[in-house]
Amino acid sequence: MSKRRFSPFEALNYVLLTLFGLSMIYPFIYILVYSLNDGKDSMMGALYFLPRKVTLDNYAQVFENHKIWQAYKITLARTLLGVVLHVSLCTMMAYALSKKTLPGRTFFTFYIFLPTIFSAGFIPYFITLQKLHLINSFWVYVIPLLFNFMHIVIIRTFLQGIPEELEESARIDGYGDFQIFLRVVLPLSGPVLATISLFIGVAHWNDWFTGAYYVSNKDLLPVQTLLQQMLTEMEALSSSMQRAAQQGGQTVNANMAGATPESLRMALLVITVFPILCVYPFLQRYFVKGVMLGSVKG
């Protein structure tokens, strides 16, 4: 059996893609290694692929903060609820707009498209949320993200590719529109629904802006907003420690049990990124298929 020979272009292509992939993965490896290494030892540098002095003190100190657990509950609740409601509403709207017999179909499409062109700005948006009593409320995380025009377009284009004969045969069996939607359309829409779920799930999980500007109740802060605040505090602490070291010859606070602001920061990053990294591989196999089928009709 003859061995396959690679052309110079293919060999160069593989090398470049491998280097590109490693450049994307290495920052995560560095953060993980730094978070698993003793904070004081990490200040010596030269940490690349393996921790030099393995410890879990950084994670222990992070999880001792009860705010982390409460923030995780808020983030998980908003992500799960937001994904279910967003996908449900967008899919139902896309299903209706995919029907050429829908009265006012063009008008409704333009009506939901228009807000994507014009934005009133931060202050009118804040006033709107205030009038709807969403400020300092859990629902400020969920309700504003229920609608996304591009997601509706992707789902609608996908649904238009489903053969009409399937729906016609279901009507012959006595199914109504809602039964057809539940028993025929949804089971065939797995790839595009998984793709949209991934899009909106990542948006919910990574959103720190809403909690920072629209929520003042500390018990309602999501984990990303809490992370942003803690990183700010740690940067201030690190600066004060550096000034103290320059003035008094000290290096780190002796009460930190081996942890430093930098090592705690790395542990926080791992804690916030790890859950979404665990979910992503399970949806990856639907991702490309869902985007292509929902973007190109044919």
TrEMBL record:
Name of the protein in its database record: Carbohydrate ABC transporter permease
Look up and give the membrane topology term: Multi-pass membrane protein
Q: Which residues form the ABC transmembrane type-1 domain?
A: 72-277
Cellular localisation = Cell membrane
Q: What is its main location?
A: membrane
Keywords recorded for this protein, A-Z: Cell membrane, Membrane, Transmembrane, Transmembrane helix, Transport
Q: Which domain of life is it from?
A: Bacteria
Task: Provide the family line.
Answer: Belongs to the binding-protein-dependent transport system permease family.
Query: TM spans, by residue?
Result: 12-33, 76-96, 108-127, 139-159, 180-205, 264-283
* CDD domains referenced in this protein's UniProt entry, alphabetically: TM_PBP2
Record-linked Pfam families: BPD_transp_1 (PF00528)
InterPro entries cross-referenced by the UniProt entry: MetI-like (IPR000515), MetI-like_sf (IPR035906)
